[in-house]
Backbone:
């Protein structure tokens, strides 16, 4: 018997192999690679991405998100069969059908003024009723298909059900909130025509769901520069209700205020900032994660600013950069499930592994668009990513070789030979008139680079006022380079920035890599590409962590050109 007969179906031209452990191997150098990748992104998670074979894993959470976005088990299986070299393992087919069918078998609903958990399967409901994690949320069992649930525990039961593998579909509806007559402008305050792009309208519609109980909570996933803020404003205009917006930092909060004033017909006095500097509560209030997570006494679990969540009759809460949501805010979010919740992010990846909490408490993924699709349509800039691997001097190599594991990355990331490489890259791009960001995490390294380039450096200790002054000078062309720390990972609106040079990062943070590339993705007036350089020390943990950071962008279709020197584009 030949190999083909033993294996059953064999299509050597197809790019994927699906294995019994629900891992999926994707052949990169295959003509059908991109099509297969775009399908896999909808229901699987990228695990690793070396040069030739990328590995994905199909998980319960990836399948539940797919189900919530409208995919069926048949859609997933059909996609796998279309691209697979071999027959699909029977256990994988069974698991896809099983896990996807679990989403929605339990439903949270309102009946006769009560919050109830319902199921068409009495045995499943009995199992749930008997579960110790669920029992604190239960008031009573009403019949074989219905359990009355404590309304104050709506978020807690959703989280517990997700953890035990039966995520509930929340159809209990939401409060209307305080009415706010507000619309999007057709002509912005700055005098330009304005309307939402087609994909932004689709994202708003996917969240709103015609105002039915099927909409009202969920996460929108789009790259930096694709206008997630516009989608948030579109949802506000659709709901016309008081809104609390939570952002990563004060810079992001003030950019929201600027955009709201420019693109919505709302008075400035109806917009409040709630931060470490200002405490205003208005019909639309923008707060920061830092202020909400503040505690006077770190040993006590008391968060005085949580009162903000009950200070108005909010009809909508927007979580900007939801992948950064701190643990304490998850806790309060579990208790405000009757309020509509919109998460905005470039990536659902969380470095703390709490993606399930985002799914359960903010809501499932409602909409995403592949980065490369938006690039082809001209909504974000084409990006060229290059990794330049350089050696260490012998004296640093010896220090690295004898260092404790915890110190090795810092030594490698701080390789002094990186300075000369930065100088070469910056000199070339300055001569071309480019706008450059040099980004890193170690302050001594950044200060040395800033001194070498005679450029300003922005760190966490730079005042908000000084940051805004420097950003403004960069926008006006008075400054062509900024050296920035992690403060630049989020919410910097520098549309003309077209070159980023990364000298060090937060270990293997995939979300950080996506955010840093996002700093330069706004489309350029002349149609030129954005250029993203990462300088790493070869054969060290610096190179290993760089490979991990690149995984999310690889999943989106970006390829890193690897070289040992700077080759001018």
Residues:
């Amino acid at each position: 018997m030949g190999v083909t007969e033993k294996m059953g179906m064999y299509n050597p031209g197809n790019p994927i192999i699906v294995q019994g452990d629900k891992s999926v191997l994707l052949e990169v150098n295959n003509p059908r690679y991109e099509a297969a990748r775009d399908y896999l992104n909808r229901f699987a998670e990228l695990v690793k991405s070396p040069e030739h074979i990328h590995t994905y894993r199909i998980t319960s959470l990836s399948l539940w998100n797919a189900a919530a976005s409208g995919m069926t088990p048949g859609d997933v299986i059909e996609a796998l069969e279309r691209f697979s070299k071999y027959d699909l393992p029977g256990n994988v087919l069974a698991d896809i059908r099983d896990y996807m069918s679990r989403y929605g078998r339990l439903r949270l609903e309102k009946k006769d003024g009560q919050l109830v958990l319902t199921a068409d399967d009495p045995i499943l409901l009995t199992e749930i009723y008997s579960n110790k994690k669920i029992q604190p949320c239960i008031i009573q069992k009403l019949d074989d298909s219905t359990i009355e649930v404590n309304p104050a525990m709506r978020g807690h039961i959703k989280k517990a059900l997700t953890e035990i593998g039966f995520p509930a579909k929340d159809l209990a509806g939401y409060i209307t909130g305080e009415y706010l007559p507000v619309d999007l402008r057709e002509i912005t305050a700055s005098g330009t025509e304005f309307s939402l792009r087609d994909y932004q309208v689709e994202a708003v519609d996917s969240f709103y769901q015609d105002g039915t109980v099927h909409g009202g909570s969920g996460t929108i996933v789009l790259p930096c520069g694709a206008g997630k803020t516009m989608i948030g404003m579109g949802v506000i205009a659709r709901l016309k209700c008081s809104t609390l917006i939570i952002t990563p930092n004060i810079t992001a909060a003030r950019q929201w205020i600027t955009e709201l004033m420019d693109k919505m017909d709302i008075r400035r006095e109806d917009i409040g900032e709630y931060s470490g500097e200002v405490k205003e509560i208005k019909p639309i209030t923008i707060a920061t994660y830092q202020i909400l997570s503040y505690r006077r006494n770190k040993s006590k679990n008391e968060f005085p600013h949580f009162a903000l969540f009950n200070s108005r009759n909010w009809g909508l809460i927007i979580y900007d950069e939801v992948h950064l949501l701190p643990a304490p805010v998850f806790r309060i979010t579990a208790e405000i499930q009757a309020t509509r919740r919109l998460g905005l992010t470039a990536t659902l990846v969380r470095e703390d592994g709490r993606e399930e909490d985002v799914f359960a408490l903010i809501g499932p993924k409602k909409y995403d668009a592949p980065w490369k699709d938006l690039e082809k349509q001209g909504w974000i800039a084409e990006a060229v990513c290059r990794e330049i691997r350089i050696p260490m001097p012998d004296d640093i190599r010896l220090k690295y070789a004898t260092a404790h594991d915890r110190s090795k990355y810092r030594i490698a990331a701080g390789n002094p030979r990186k300075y000369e490489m930065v100088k070469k890259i910056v000199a070339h791009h300055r001569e071309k008139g480019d706008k450059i960001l040099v980004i890193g995490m170690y302050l001594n390294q950044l200060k040395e680079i800033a001194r070498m380039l005679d450029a300003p450096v922005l760190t966490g200790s730079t005042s908000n006022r000084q940051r805004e002054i420097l950003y403004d000078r960069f926008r006006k062309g008075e400054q062509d380079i900024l050296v920035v720390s992690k403060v630049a990972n989020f919410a910097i609106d520098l549309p003309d920035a077209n070159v980023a040079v990364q000298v060090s990062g937060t270990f293997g943070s995939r979300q950080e890599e996506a955010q840093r590339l996002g700093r330069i993705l706004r489309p350029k007036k002349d149609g030129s590409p954005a250029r993203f350089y990462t300088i790493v020390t070869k054969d060290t943990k610096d190179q290993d962590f760089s490979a991990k950071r690149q995984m999310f962008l690889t999943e989106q279709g970006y390829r890193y050109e690897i070289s040992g020197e700077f080759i001018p584009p």
The first strand starts at residue 16 and ends at 18. Residues 128 and 224 are 40 Å apart (CA to CA). The two ends are 54 Å apart (CA to CA).
